[in-house]
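Worked example 3 (structure in, sequence out).
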């Protein structure tokens, strides 16, 4: 069997997140035939560790009729995207993904922390920035409510590491009960310091947990931070969907691509009888994604365990790694990074000027 024939055979195997064959996706880097053995080098373009075994089985099955001993060498190459004109790259960070919602109370922070942990599970180096200056929640969710970051040179801050995620939050720097009675410019300045003074260590992805809305923090992030892309979290409820549209429109105005929509609290399964009920409505996330011509990344259930685990500092991906909820988070995380891997690597000319008026 020739190398070309092997490539044709392997291209019939689809990378589901990319909807492309193994060869068309650019993952098959080399095929080496030696007698009755074939050595394949496969390099994924996004974190894929949990799916490697299944892909290896598919490859072995595809070549089973050729009496070949299959050897697979795995690699991973996550591209660093270029950013908007006038916004400098963030040292130590390849890609920045903002997790946003137009409305509070939709589970955005819980989604952000679980997606960050899911990406770690999939083999990525990940950071998590809590950009909610007024109501930081990530220190509690990561089980580091009492942590205080190490400082260098009275300026640089080392991220707090928990469950393999590098994190930073205003919650690490102030008393937990202290109210942040700041006007917008003060909060925006604090956010910039958190981002720029933290010494992120070779991150493939920095996940930013944004506060809800489209105010000062979001505008500062769009203007001053090299955001690569965004993900919008919503519930199926009509009120939440209306605000999610505003969040998407904000990112469109500042030329930050939206990678997709995550629907949270989509369905509740009764723990006693197993009855499924759509408490906040049904199909809202899918409808929103279709109307905006972006991908529907997945729906997460309304489950008490998700809330309990986050409150205990052990989000579901860590607390129940083999559970259905953790599998959903990993699937959504892979889709997000797969979509990002297909985006143009050069956004340098796409950022418009922003003017603010009182008209």
């Amino acid at each position: 069997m020739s190398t070309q024939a092997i490539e044709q055979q392997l291209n019939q195997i689809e990378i589901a997140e990319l909807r492309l064959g193994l060869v068309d996706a650019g993952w098959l880097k080399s095929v080496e035939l030696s007698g009755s053995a074939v050595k394949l080098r496969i390099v994924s373009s996004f974190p894929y560790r949990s799916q490697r075994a299944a892909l290896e089985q598919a490859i072995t099955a595809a070549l089973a009729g050729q009496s070949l001993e299959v050897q697979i060498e795995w690699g991973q190459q996550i591209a660093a995207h270029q950013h908007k004109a006038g916004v400098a790259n963030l040292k130590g960070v390849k890609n920045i993904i903002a997790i946003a919602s137009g409305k509070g109370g939709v589970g955005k922070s819980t989604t952000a922390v679980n997606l960050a942990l899911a990406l770690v599970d999939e083999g990525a180096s990940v950071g998590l920035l809590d950009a909610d200056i007024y109501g930081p929640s990530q220190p509690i969710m990561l089980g580091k409510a009492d942590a205080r970051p190490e400082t260098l040179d009275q300026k640089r801050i080392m991220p707090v590491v928990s469950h393999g995620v590098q994190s930073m939050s205003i919650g690490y720097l102030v008393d937990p009960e202290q109210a942040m009675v700041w006007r917008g410019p003060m909060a925006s300045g604090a956010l910039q310091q958190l981002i720029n003074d933290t010494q992120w260590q070779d991150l493939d992805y920095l996940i930013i947990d944004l506060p809800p809305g489209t105010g000062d923090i979001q505008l500062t992030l769009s203007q001053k931070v090299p955001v690569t892309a965004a993900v919008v979290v919503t519930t199926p409820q009509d009120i939440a969907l209306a605000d999610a549209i505003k969040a998407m429109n904000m990112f469109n105005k500042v030329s930050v691509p939206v990678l997709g929509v995550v629907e949270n609290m989509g369905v509740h399964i009764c723990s006693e009888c197993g009855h499924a009920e759509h408490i906040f409505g049904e199909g809202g996330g899918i409808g929103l994604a279709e109307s905006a011509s972006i991908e529907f990344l997945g729906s997460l259930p309304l489950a008490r365990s998700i809330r309990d685990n986050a409150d205990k500092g052990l989000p579901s991906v860590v607390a129940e790694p083999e559970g259905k909820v953790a599998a959903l988070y990993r699937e959504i995380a892979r889709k997000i990074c797969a979509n990002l891997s297909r985006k143009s690597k050069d956004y340098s000319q796409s950022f418009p000027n922003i003017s603010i008026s009182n008209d």
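Notes: Confidence is low (pLDDT under 50) at residues 348-359. DSSP finds eleven helices and 17 strands in the chain.
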